[in-house]
Amino acid sequence: MLLGLSFICAIGALPPPAIAADAAISKQNPGAQVVDFSIRAQSLAAALTDFAEQSGFKFAYDAQLTRGLSSEGLSGRMSGLQALRKLLTGTGLTFRFTGPQIITIEKSADTNGTRVLGPVRVEGAGSTGIAGMNGSTDATATEGSKSYTSSALGIASKTPQSMRETPQSVSVITQQRMRDQNLNDFNSMMNQATGVSIVTNNSSVDPVYYSRGFVVNRIQIDGGPPLRTGSTYYPQIDMAMFDHVEILRGADGLFNGYGDPGGVVNLTRKRPLDHSQVTVEGQSGSWSNYRAVIDGTAPLGFDGRLRGRAVMSYEDRDFFYDIANENHTLAYGILEMDVTPDTLASVGVNFTKQDSIPFQNGLPRYDNGDDMKLPRGTCLCFEWNRWSIDTKDAFAQLEQHFGTNWSAKLNLTRTEQVNHRKYGFLISRVNPVGNQGSYVNGNMYDYFSLQTLLDFTLNGAIDLFGHRQELVVGTNYAKNSMDGYTNYPSLFSANVPIDPLHFDPKNPAYAEPATPHFSTHYLTYYTTQRVSYANVRLTPFTPLHLITGVRYSSYDSVTSSDSYDPRTGVTQRSPLSAWTGHNVSWPPTYSMVYDVTKTLSAYASYTDIYVSSAYDLQESGSPVEPVTGSNVEAGLKFEGLGGRLNGSIAGYRIEQKHYPVLLGYGPYTSTNGQLPDGIHRCCYSSGNRVNLSQGFDAEVSGELTRGWQASAGYTFNENVTKGSDAYARNYTGPLKPLVSLSPKHMLKLWSSYQFQGGEYLRRVNVGGGVNSQTKSYVSGSNCVAYNYGTDANGNPTATCKQATPFDFTQGFYAVFSARVAYQIDSRWNAALNINNVADRVYYQTVGQTTVGNWYGEPRNYMLTLRGRF
Q1: What are the strands, taking DSSP E only, across 544-626?
Q2: Cα–Cα distance between 819 and 833 in angstroms, integer?
Q3: Any idea what DSSP says for residue 16?
Q4: How high is the mean pLDDT of the chain?
Q5: Using DSSP, how many helices (H) and how many strands (E) does the chain show?
Q6: 464's torsion region: left (phi>0), alpha (psi -120 to 50) or beta?
Q7: Which residues contact 338 (CB under 8 A, 6 or more apart)?
Q8: Phi-psi region of 377 (alpha: psi -120 to 50; beta: other; left: phi over 0)
Q9: pLDDT tens digit sequence for 559-578
């Protein structure tokens, strides 16, 4: 079925030319239905926006056509064709279908000086046309679509392509899904992404994301070079400023320089719209969770060629565990201008400020691995804990079209983050006899990150051998300067004992320690990555598309630091240290897409993996070899209902070689393996270690029937490692899990239904979903008794005399959620979300016996009131 499911022709009410057109459209859309429209009197552009939201169609037209025109609105149950004709009557405009999902507005023909609404033309039926939604210039925008899928993504191609044309596993979380599921921050959004598991290691503020057994640590914004995360930059991202999110699973080394196998996330900013629109949102939820958002956009001048948009949000929340809280503020603004009919320029800024009392390190276990069964509300943290993150972004984009087949895009982003944290936490396992063994520790850091990201892309197409051949070439540059990054020694000079079962955060023994003298202060610390790439998509004959690309990348780092020795009171400056690496992707990336039918494609792809490990040194002092490997994938992709429904199934195999393995610290390194130059670490070996990950995903998203949206993703993954193992030399034992916290089976499902009949029933929307996964576990041993001595140089040594093994598991769990919403009138909507409906008690992350065990959220509620004007 094609996308025009909602349109049925009212033949008797139409003039003869329209009857023929409607018959043609109806013939292509045999399941079409009439729609209950409610569109108030307003500007024509705004009325068309309401029409698109209520009918599910997309518009493509020059904003100048509707400038100064108004609409009296309409109300009632009628076909979409009837409604659109009524809206355009007397405006001098007509429309035509340029695809099953796309409507183009244009000027009407003149007949004896009187403008009439001409016949509807249908072009490219069955094709997947691409046009911006809701008056946005972004071809991938999803705002206003009311859909759980998108007709176009740009994450794997640098140009808008449908999911069916993309030869890798990609997902999209649309604006509608973010609203329906209350995905207000980056963490909640990633928790709903197909194939992604979340591990909360050290802090409630800093989770780790895994895909296919590997860490996802690269984030793009508007398709630019990836931000460097996980060192001094933390993605505390408010989703209010983003239209949608695109997620690629597996390696993406062609456009991003180094092909880490976990994947990459692309956040697409909201752009200004061609009409005035203001949305307001207020939320109140469990554990004193309050949030407010205002989002306004409008044409600002030059006959609508200059447009603007501003988004502001404020959130204040506590958590289900004691003491911890979080306060978050966002301000975002963007200006966009049609400099010429072929030139689009935009500039913008955003500022986020987050202040929190974090829960650090999570809960401990007994030293034999047994669960202490602490209440879910337990937080072993202190009121003086603090973690502030201030982020400032400034960006500019320039898009230039050359005719109909060629375009260029320049994307520049400058991101600055200042990050201060000071906190105390419990460390060490607990002896079940007397609950002794744990003590309080504390850390303090000052982080600074200034990232400059530049990306230039030229893409186009030529007709050759009777087919369209496409080319993308480009270059990008990313520099991350961390000058000023400072760390401090432990805040507690002596071990202060703590009993987790009788924890009192106000105990004077746990009072905030004074700020110590720094340990290391980085005077110079920056990394630079440069990438050039070329990618071609060849069509030798109609069903077959061959894609190949080559990449050159270079990476370098420069550092110098001051180190303070508290024993002597002397500050020592390290010499300037630098290292560099470069790589050409060879063999090149390549893939094949074969159009089995107009809606079904088969594909296969290969992408290389390359990550420099020059900062990890062998015992000889030379760097270990780079991490290399391959990402091989094959699958099927389906596109139905004219692009309103997408489905895929893919099998993959990832092989990562030469991953650096810690053999032990050298006598000339600090206790964390850091050399005096502040960046190189010792002592490592790439040995014969190989990380393997294989499995398959299946995903479907979009409209199943009229009013029924769904997103479902299933993932099966097996990951193992063999060869050299951490802290061991020449390990050749059985295969071990690469990440035992990554589940083998994972299912994420969310669905909503908009009732269709009756004056009041059609205002009701209900939804529900489940996140479920099989077991995750941790095993190992704890040393409970030591042999103490000295080495040949008189230095103290300690070897384990008695060890206690442990093995603990979080078994299968399923967490259900539900939602009910009611459209109060044409402007206001109210919704209630309930998460963990059954109040399932489970560990979202199991860590070690010492730290890292985190309960999942208990049952909680969120009430939302949203208005659009």
Answers
A1: 544-565, 570-573, 577-584, 589-595, 600-611, 616-617
A2: 4
A3: H
A4: 82
A5: 6, 52
A6: beta
A7: 305, 344
A8: alpha
A9: 888 888 777 888 888 777 77
